[in-house]
Every structure is written in structure tokens, then in C-alpha cells.
Amino acid sequence: MHRFAYVIPSFLLLLLNIIIHSHALSPAAKENRGTNRLFLDTAVESEWYGLSTGMFHGITTNPALLEKAGHKCTVESVRLLSSRALALPNCSEFMCQAWGRNSVEMFQIGMQLSEVDRERIVIKVPVTLEGTQAAKRLIDSGVRVCLTACYNSDQAMIASGLGAEYIAPYLGRMIDNRKNGLEEVARMQRIVNGMGSKTRILVASIRDLKQMSTLMEYGMNTFTFNPDLARDMFRDPLTIAAAAEFEECAERMGAYKASASPRAKSLEEL
Question: Domains, the chain, ranges and CATH?
Fold first, then answer.
């Protein structure tokens, strides 16, 4: 009886793992998508499901986004959120931010948050002295790290020297502070390349699609952006008009007479 009790949890874990990974991108789809990593920047769970298209590599959050979504900034709350995110089809990474009044506290919180899945959870810490000290200890402990709240291209040297996987410059906020945000971010990429580092520049605080496409033209491929910007990708009026015309033709030619199809929600209803 006791032996059987140990078998059931192991079987259920295996089954859950199979179900989750059965929804992952196929090898061909991953290859076609290239090395880009697009992240959805929100802690609102309904947005994760509403914008689930397969184009997003993962989800990014921070304490400000947790507050906006009505989540508590506690280890237990963020762990639960990360488990739900990583159960989503195609979600390869979940980024959450460690908090703390010093490097020791940030390190301890980062270790606790990452325990859910060390392979797919990335811990964010601010690119301050205390944050960098915490980041060093986290990296040495096998935790994936993103240095965040970057406002200066020279800070790329910190991330590269440390060996952090990501550094997140706040493009829109740089521009708000009268900096040439696009040039600062592009220079970060040149610094990382010059140092021979594999650190990814995760561009955040993006205000419009033109900013992102311009940086893509510079060869950058890692971005996180909010749900409103994600929806803007699908709002080209000419594309919408063409799709509507196709549907009208299909309906006239009897596409929906054989069987009634349930009405799907439009983008505006998500």
C-alpha cells in the first residue's frame, strides 16, 4: 500500500510533463522562428491566454506589474504565478524580479523564486551595485539572471563582465529622460559584441512598433512588450479589410452552410 502511494505522484508528474510539452513548438517551427526571443510583459493571466499565438518565447514580470495585476509580491504568490505561466503552451521562460534591501536578501529571494524551475525561470535584479552582487551569487548557484532597469549603454559592460544572460534597457524611459534611446540600446549591442559576450539585450519599455522594428533592422532580436503593443501588430486596416473580404467570399460560396461554426472572439474582445 505504501509503495503504491509513491508510484501515483511520480506517474502524475510524468503525465503532466507529457501534456505540457506536447504543446511545445515543433523543431521546424523553432528553426523557422530563428534566434529571436519575444516576451509578453504582463502579469495579467487573461492576457497570456488571449494573446497565445506561439510567437512569444516567454513572459516577463516585475513588482510593478504584479501590483497592476493584483498579485501579492510574496514568494508564494510569484511561485504560483510562474507555475501557471510555465504550463502555458510554448512558454519557454518566465522572468520574475527578486526584491530585497541588500544583496543578501535579493540573493535569497532569487534562489527561492527560481526553485520552481531552474531551467526556465530567469531572475531579474536591478543593475545596481547591490543587485550586481546578488546577480553574481545567483549565477554561481546555477540561476539564470537578467540585469534590469538599465538606463545607460555603458551598463552593458557590467552584464557582459558578469556573464549575465540578459540585460534589460528601458527604451521608452530613456527617451522620456531626453536620451537618444535607440542609439543607447544599439550601442549596448555593439559593446556586448565587442566584449565577445553572449549576453542578450532584452529591450523593454517599448512605446510603439516602429521603435522595435528599427532596432530589428540594427540586428537586435530580443524584446519584451505589453499586451496593447502586441495587439497593435494585428490591427493593420488593410489586412483586416482583406480578411473580411475573404470571409464574405467564403460565406457566399457556401462555406458555412454545411455546418454551423461557433463564433470566435475578435481581437477587440480579448
Answer: 20-225 (3.20.20.70), 234-259 (no CATH)
Whether the CB-CB separation of 90 and 125 falls below 8 Å is answered with no
CA 80/CA 65 separation, integer angstroms: 15
Q: Residue 39's closest CA among 166, 186, 199, 175?
A: 166
- pLDDT tens digits, residue range 48-93? 999 999 999 999 999 999 999 999 999 999 999 999 999 999 899 9
pTM of the shown model? 0.85
CA distances from 55 to 30, 58, 119, 264 (A): 10, 9, 20, 20
Alpha helices by DSSP H, the chain: 2-21, 27-33, 45-50, 63-69, 75-86, 103-114, 129-140, 156-162, 171-176, 181-194, 209-217, 227-232, 237-252
Distances (CA, A) of 131 to 99, 140, 242: 9, 14, 50
- Cα 26 from Cα 71, distance rounded (Å): 33
Helix residue spans in 163-236 (DSSP H): 171-176, 181-194, 209-217, 227-232
The grid coordinates listed for 254 are 457556401
